[in-house]
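The instructor's notes for this session suggest beginning with a concrete chain rather than abstract definitions. Hand out the sequence below and ask the class to guess, before any prediction is shown, which regions might be ordered.
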Amino acid sequence: MHGDLSPIGNLVLFSSGIGWTNNLEKRLKAHNEGKGAKYTRSRLPLTLVYYEEYETPKEAMKREYQIKKMSRASKLSLININV
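After discussion, reveal the predicted structure:
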């Protein structure tokens, strides 16, 4: 994983889903306080398993779409390569 958590766009892969944010720490905290999407509220606590940094939200959203189309095995491989 990367060190700085404050780029313009982060692609995040939680133990229960994927998304993008411009503030990784704030998003993780909000989800774990039950303030996130209804889907994630029933899957707490969330664990951050992987993230990528991008210069723009558009880049992060494009990558999110690519990963969502990947097979489960490919997603697990992506996580394991970067641990």
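Then share the key points. Strands lie at 9-14, 17-21, 48-54. Confidence is low (pLDDT under 50) at residues 1-7.
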